[in-house]
Amino acid sequence: MGGYQQRALEAASAVDLVVALYDGMIRFLHVAREAAERGDAEGRRAAVKRALDIIIHLQARLRMDIGGRPAQVLSEFYASIFAQILQASQAASPAKFAHAIECVRNVRDAWKQVAQDPAVNPPPLQVGSLLRGLEGDEGGDAGPEAAASSRWNA
């Protein structure tokens, strides 16, 4: 992964990371669909494995004790989409992959809406707000010079 992508992920919120995982799942499902169209069984299986790994990761991170009914619904969705992807792969069916992609995209779009709600997903710390906070620090020597020497250079 490139340095830019790595820094973007480090600054992302939990909701943004979930959206990124869904984006990855969709990308791998497209690769699997295209491999099925070409008759590339090895490529299809590799892409399906990556998509299923993401589902397993998302499923494992659900907190039923905290999430309640929404977590239960997501768990059922993950089980259902897992089965759909396995069926699509077993049948090497581009149409079944397309259906799975559409289902995942619908849930991804819901997460994307959540990501746009600042009450649920506050914006990441920005360099400007960090510098304003440092300038307001009366007890230390953190002025513009200190900020310029930090890793937060603009």
Task: Describe the protein's architecture and organization.
It is built from seven helices and no strands. With 154 residues, it is mostly helical. It has two domains: 3-117, Four Helix Bundle (Hemerythrin (Met), subunit A) (Up-down Bundle); 124-154, no CATH class. The radius of gyration is 21 Å and the shape is globular.
By CATH, the superfamily of the largest domain comes out as Flagellar protein FliS
Unreliable segments of 5+ consecutive residues? 127-131, 137-154
Structure class: mainly alpha
Q: How large a portion of the residues is in β-strands, by DSSP E?
A: under 5%
Q: Could you tell me the radius of gyration in angstroms?
A: 21 Å
Here the CATH topology of the largest domain equals Four Helix Bundle (Hemerythrin (Met), subunit A)
Per CATH, the class of the largest domain reads Mainly Alpha
What can be said about the biggest beta sheet? none
Number of strands: 0
Helix content: over 70%
Looking at the overall shape, the CATH architecture of the largest domain is Up-down Bundle
